Amino acid sequence: MDDRKALIALNDELSADEDPILLPREAGQASKAVQDFGRYQSEEPSTSAAAGRVAPHISGNNHFLDDDQPPLLGDNSLPPNVPINGSAGSSNRNINSSEPIFHLRSRTAAASTPNYESLDYEVCENTLFQDEQRKRLTERFSLRKDIIRWIIFIQIGIITALIACTIDIIIEELSERKYTFLYNSVKKNVPLSDAADGSDLLIPYLYWLLFSILPVAFGAAMVTYIEPITAGSGIPQVKSYLNGVKIPRIVRIKTLAVKAIGVITSVVGGLAGGKEGPMIHAGAVVAAGISQGKSTTFVKDFRIFKAFRDDHEKRDFVLGGGAAGVSAAFGAPIGGMLFSLEEAASFWNQNLIWRTLVASIISVFTLNIVLSAYHGLNDFTFTGLFNLGKFDTPLKFDYFELPIFMLLGVTGGLLGAAWNSLNTKINKFRKRFIPWKIGKVIEAVVVAMMGVTLACLMIYFINDCRPLGNDPTNNPVQLFCEDNEYNAVAALWFQTPEATVRSLFHDPPGSHKILTLALFTVVYYVLSCATFGLNVSLGVFIPTALVGAAWGRLLAMLTYYAFPQAEFLHPGKYALIGAAANLGGVLRMTISLSVILMETTGVETSFFFPLIIALISAKWVGDYFNEGIYDTQIQVNHVPMLTWEPLPQYKGLTAREILSSPVVCIKLRDSAHYIYQMLKKCDHNGFPVVDDVSGDRRSEGRVCGIILRSQLIVILLKSLYVENKRFWLPETSIQTFRDVYPRYPSIKSVRKLDNKINYTVDLSMFMNPSPIRVNPHDSVPRIFQIFRALGLRHLLVINNENRIAGIITRRDFIYK
Amino acid sequence: MDDRKALIALNDELSADEDPILLPREAGQASKAVQDFGRYQSEEPSTSAAAGRVAPHISGNNHFLDDDQPPLLGDNSLPPNVPINGSAGSSNRNINSSEPIFHLRSRTAAASTPNYESLDYEVCENTLFQDEQRKRLTERFSLRKDIIRWIIFIQIGIITALIACTIDIIIEELSERKYTFLYNSVKKNVPLSDAADGSDLLIPYLYWLLFSILPVAFGAAMVTYIEPITAGSGIPQVKSYLNGVKIPRIVRIKTLAVKAIGVITSVVGGLAGGKEGPMIHAGAVVAAGISQGKSTTFVKDFRIFKAFRDDHEKRDFVLGGGAAGVSAAFGAPIGGMLFSLEEAASFWNQNLIWRTLVASIISVFTLNIVLSAYHGLNDFTFTGLFNLGKFDTPLKFDYFELPIFMLLGVTGGLLGAAWNSLNTKINKFRKRFIPWKIGKVIEAVVVAMMGVTLACLMIYFINDCRPLGNDPTNNPVQLFCEDNEYNAVAALWFQTPEATVRSLFHDPPGSHKILTLALFTVVYYVLSCATFGLNVSLGVFIPTALVGAAWGRLLAMLTYYAFPQAEFLHPGKYALIGAAANLGGVLRMTISLSVILMETTGVETSFFFPLIIALISAKWVGDYFNEGIYDTQIQVNHVPMLTWEPLPQYKGLTAREILSSPVVCIKLRDSAHYIYQMLKKCDHNGFPVVDDVSGDRRSEGRVCGIILRSQLIVILLKSLYVENKRFWLPETSIQTFRDVYPRYPSIKSVRKLDNKINYTVDLSMFMNPSPIRVNPHDSVPRIFQIFRALGLRHLLVINNENRIAGIITRRDFIYK
C-alpha cells in the first residue's frame, strides 16, 4: 500500500531522531540536528495556514494517507523538529549564527544548551487517579502512608549517615597513611636541619606527586567516563532537581557510587576541595532510592512504597536526604536542615520541615555513634562532632569589634565575588578549550600537580620554623628546621584541607609567620578557584572556609603586629570570622552557614552575633557584584531554574509575549496513528487535549485537558484503544502508568502500529482534566507566581472562549 | 415615582443591615439577624429559576421598576442576606436548630461564629495596576523600592526592640517594688522565726491581694472594654492574619497600646503568664504600622511607603515584625526567625527569610544596647541576653540519658495534651457562662486572688527552710525560718514567673523540698490553665516553661532520692529538659523552641540534641491526642484558617461538592443602580464579572473577571461612570483605590444614587481580568493546593464553556 511505504520512508527520514527523553548532548550531535533541520526546511515547502501562526509543517505528506482517514497532517501541523515558537522565521535566522540560541525550546536548536526537561510536580488527577484515591480514602490507609513516610525518613537518615561515615573513615585512613609516608620520606631524605640544598626534597616531592596524581587521575577518569553528572559538589544539581528540573541520572545508584569514590580519591589526592557538597548529593540519592522501593539499575522491585512513586513525593524525600547529608557532613542537625531550606528547597511546608529535621537528627546521631565506636571512645558521652574542632575557651567579643567584623564581612564579600567571577571565567575557558574527555582528566591531574608543586616551593623557600610541642598537627615535619622545631609551612600542607581549617582555627597565637599565611592564602585562593569546575567530585565549602580562615587569621596577625596592645585579637576567633565572611561571599547563605559554623566549632550561642554580622555584610557586598557560586553554576549550565521572583526583564510583559505557539493538540478521541506520528516527530512533553474540533483543526478546539508524552507512550505501548477496550479496561489503573516511572520508554520502543492504524484513543480517562489556564493578557509576574507556587510543567494560555492561545513552560520564563 | 418609593421601602426593610465590613458580633445581634432572615423568607415567596440553582430571591419586587429599565431583580437574583449556598433549603432548616451553623457563609447565619473575612493576598492586576507597573518599570524604581523595603525592616527591628525594652523595664521595676514591699511587710509582721500562728501573715497577704487585684483589674478592664482583641497571647491572631484571615483591628496602634499596658499589668499583677506572646503581637503591629507610612487612627498620612499599601506587602512586613518581636522577647535572633517560620508563616520565600533575619538581628542588637545601658554595664562586651539565665558550667550528658530525655518528652506530651484539653474545656465553659463584660473582669480578678491565696497557703503550711547564701533570689524571706535561713516556698512565689524559671534552672541542687516542688507544679499547672483564656494580655510560653521546669527538676530530685549514686542528675539540666518537654507538649513546636531555649540559656550547641529529643517525643505524643494550643484556640474561635493540608474529610470531594452557588454576578457594563442595590443587599466580597449575557441572566454569562466589593464601593463613591468618563478618567489611577486601603468605606457611605440611577459602570479597567478558575470536577486537594499556595480569596468554578458554576472561598474548605 502506498501509505505504508510512505510511512516507512517518513520514518527513515526521521531516523536521525534520538531518544525523546532528552539528555544533555554534545555540541557536535546537536549541530548535526541543526543541519538536518535546515535540510528539512529546504526540501519540504512550508505553507502557512490558520491565521498565520503555524510553523513550517509537512502538510505535503497528506497524500500518503487513505482517503477515509482524516488528513493526518493538516493545518494543525506536526512541526518536524520545529521549535514551538511564535517566531519560527526568526529562529531560522538564529540557527546559522554562532550565538547560543537560548530562546528556542526545541532540542534541534540547542546548539550548546542541554535541553533540560521539567519534573511532574503537579499531580495529574485523571479519572484513574481519582478512582484510586476513592478506594484509598480510608483512615487506615492514610495513617499507614504517614507511618511509612516516617519510616522512610528515618531510614534516609541512617543510611546517609552510614555512607558519610564510610567516606569519612576511608578518607581519614588513606590521608593518614599518605602523609605519614611522606613524613617518613622527608625524614629519611632531608636528614640535616641546615641542608640548604633542595635536591634532597626531590624524592619526597616525587612521591607526593605520585600520591596526588594516582588518585586524582583515577577519580577524574571515573567521573569523566562513567558518570559526568557527578562532577562538582552536586549542590547545584540537587537544587535544580528540587526546583523541578529533570537533571538526567542525578539520583541513580551508579551516580552515588561514582560520587563516593570520586570524593574519596580527590580529597586523598590533595585537591582543594571538601567532602561536604558530595555528601548532600549522596543523601539525595539515598532518599530517592529508598523512597521508591525499587532500583531500576538493578532491575529489582521490592514492591514496597508504591504510593510514593511520583515526582512530587520523591521531591520531599530528596529534600530530607539532602538535609541528612549536610547534617552528616558537618555533624550539624539544625544547620543541615536550615541549609536545605535556605539553599536547596524551592517548595516548603511545615510538615516537611518537621520530617526533614527528624532525618537530620537521626543522621547525626547515627554518625556520632559509629564514629565514636570507630575512634574507640569508651565513655558514652555525646560530644557533638565538631568536625572543625571545638573552641575550648569560650569566644568573647566587645562591641567595638563589631565594625571590624563588618569590615571582614565586606572583605569576604569582595573576595568571594571575585572568586565567583574568576571561577566562572576559568570554567568558560575550560568548556571551550577542553572538550575532550581525556583532556578533562589530564587537566585535573595538572591542577593536582600544580598544588603539590606550589606547596613544595613554599616549603622550600619559606623558612618558618616553630618549636615543637603545641602544634596540633599529626606529622610535624622537621624539614630544614633545627631539632625540636617543626616546619610550619609543611604543617599547613601535610594534611587534608579540613584539618588545615582546624589548625587555623585552633593553633595557638604565633604558630605561623605572616609571610607563610599570606602566600598560603594567595596560593589556596587560586588553587581552589582552579579546582572547582574540574571533572572531579568535590565540594567548595571547605576550600572556601580555608581561604577565609587563612586571611582572617592573617589580618588579625597583621593588626596585632601593628598594635601589639590589642589583646582582643585572638587569631582563632578572627580565622572563624574570616571563614564565615569568605563563605558568605562565595555561597551567599547566611543563617544556615552561621548555624553550621556554630555547630561544628561548638562556640557559644552569643557568638552567633559576630558570625551573622560578617555573613550579612559579605552577602550584601557580594550580591552587588554577582550571584552565589551555586546559582552561577546553574546559570552557566543553562539550567532553567525558576528563581523566587521573575527575572527583572520579564516584569513588564504579558503571557502573550512569552507564550509558545502554535501548540500541537490532540483531540479527546483521536486516532492512534496521529498520536504515534506526532510523538515520533515532535518532542514536546505535554499536549493540550481539545474538544469541539471541526475536522482536523485541532488547535482551534476547546481545551478540556492536558496529557503528557509519557502517558501517550504508555497508552500506545499497552494498546489502550477504544476498539479493544473490553480487554484492558478491567485491569488498567493508575498503577499501569506508575509502573514505568521514572524511566519512561521512548516512542521508539513502540513498534509500528501496523494493524492498529485505524484504532482510536479516548483520552478522557487518562488526561489531566484540569490543567491550570491563564489569559493571554495576564502579566508575567502573575503567571510566574502561579507557575512557581504550584510547581507546574505546562501552563495553558487560553482565550475567553477556552480555546488554546499558546503554552508556557519553564523555559519561557528564562530564555525568551 | 413608583420605583423611587419602592426603593425607599426596600431600603427601610433592609435597614437592619449592618456595616458590611464584618466584625465579630455578639450572639444576640446575630440571632436577631437570623430571625430577620426567617421573616424575610416567609414574607417573600421564593421562586426557583435558572436550572433550579438560584436561591430565594426578591423577584416579587420587579414591578417597582420602570419598564425601560431592565428587570433589576430578575432571575439572576439579589439574594437578600441569603447565604450563597447550593443548598439554600437545607440551610433554612439549620437556622432554627440550636447547633452552630458553620457551613453557611452568610453572616446572617453566623449565630456563634464571628464572620472572618479574607485578606486580599492576591494582587489584582487590573488595567490601572498594569498602567502603574509600566510607568514604574525602571531599574531605578525597583531598586528604590528594594532599599525602602530594607529600611522598613530595619526600622521594624529597632522600634519593636524599643517597645520590648520599655515593657521589660517597666515590668522589672514595678515587680521589684511590689515584691520588695511585700518582703518588708512580711519582715515587719512576721518578726519571729518560730511564729506558728499565721495571723501575722494576714497583713502581707492582704497587701499581696491588693497588689494583684489592682493591676489585674485595670488590665482586664482595659482589654475587655477598650480592645477585646488584645486578650491572650496574640500569636493565634497573628498566625491567622498571616494565613490570610482578616482579624479586625489586629494591627492597629490602639491595639498595641492596650496590649502593652495589658501585659505589664498582668505580669506585675502576678498572673501565671509571660510577656513573650504579646511581644510578637506588638512586633506585628509595629510592622504593619510602619510599613504603611500612615496611621488611620491618627488620620495622619506621611505620604511615604505608598507602594507597600496592600495586603500582600503588609503580610511580609508583619512576618518580619513578629520575628523581631520574638527575638526581642527572648533575646534570640535565630530562634525568633525560626519561630516565625515554624509557627506563624503560611507563605514563605527566600528573600523574606533573609529580611526577617535582619529585622530579628537588629531587634536583638538594639535591645541588648538599651538594656546594657539601663543596667549600667560599663564594659561594652556583648553577652547575649539570656533572659532565662546562662548555664555557667557547660551541660554534659551521656548516651544512656537519652531514653530518660525521651521519657521526659513523653511526660511533657501527655501533660501538655491534658493541659490543652483542660484549657479548651475551661474556655468553653467561660464562653458559655460568662458572657458579660464585667464578669470577665471579675473572673480575671478571681483567678489572680486564687493565685495569691494558694501561694500564701503553700507558704504557710509548708516548712521549707534553706540556709541563706546561695539562692539567687532578690528577696530571701525569712518567714517562719531560723535566722540565716530563708523560706524556699516564698522564694518561688515572690517574683515574676520568668524569674522563677531562672531559679529552677540555676538554683543549686538541694534548693527545694520535694513536697514544695510537687505542690508548686500542681498549683501552677492548674493556675496557668485557668489563666490562659482570661480577658488579659498574657502569653503562655513562660508559665508552660515554668511548669515543665518544675516537674523536670522534681523528677530529677525524686530519682536522685531513689538512687543517690546517680551523679548525672543535675537538677538544672533536668529542669531545662522538662521545660522543653512541656513546651513541646503544649505548643507543638520543635526547632524554634529548642533554638530559643539554647539562645536564652547559652547552653552549648551539643546540648541541642537532648532538647530536640525531648521536644520531638513531646510533640509526637501530644499530636496523638490533640493539636497545639495556638491551633486549638484558632479552631475554638472558628477562625477559617487554612491548614497546610486539606482536612481529611475533604479529601474525596470535588469542587462541585463544596462550591457555593448561585453566584451573584455583574455584567462587564452594568447599571450603577443594579450594583448599588446588590451591594446593599448582599455582603459578599467578590463578584464575578460576566460577558455575553442574554438580557439579565447574569449568572449564565461568560466569566471575564472578578471584582471586589471594596472596588465597587470606590467606583460608586467616586462616580466613575461611563457617562461622565471625561471628568474622572485623567486623574483616576490605582492610587484612587489604594488611598482608601485598608479601611474600605461601607456601602452605607454611598449616598443614594438619585440622579445617577441610569448611569452605567464599565468594569473592564477596574476588575481583575484573570481570576484563577477551576473545573467542577477538580478534586478538593488540588483546588486546596491552588487556593493555599496562591493565597486566594475567591476561586471561580467554571464549566467547559467558561460560564460560572460556583465560587469557592476559604470557608468552603473548612465549614462545609
Could you give a short description of this structure?
The structure is a homodimer of 816-residue chains. By secondary structure, chain A is mainly α. The first copy, chain A, has 28 helices and 14 strands.
Overview of this protein structure:
The structure is a homodimer of 816-residue chains. By secondary structure, chain A is mostly helical. Chain A folds into three domains: 2-116 and 651-813, Roll (CBS-domain), CATH 3.10.580; 143-177 and 219-374, Clc chloride channel (Orthogonal Bundle), CATH 1.10.3080.10; 401-444 and 496-636, Orthogonal Bundle (Clc chloride channel), CATH 1.10.3080.10. Helices cover 53% and strands 6% of the residues of chain A. Chain A has 28 helices and 14 strands. In chain A, the strands form six sheets. In chain A, strands 7-9-10 form a three-stranded mixed β-sheet. The first copy, chain A, has a three-stranded mixed β-sheet with strand order 12-13-14. In chain A, a hairpin with a 5-residue loop joins strand 13 (794-798) and strand 14. In chain A, helix 13 packs across helix 19 (571-587), helix 18 packs across helix 19 (571-587) and helix 24 crosses helix 25 (709-717). Chain A is elongated and about 95 Å long. Mean pLDDT of chain A is 78; it is low at 1-112. Chains A, B: This is Chloride channel protein. Chains A, B: Residues 659-722, 767-816 form the CBS domain. Chains A, B: Its main location: membrane.
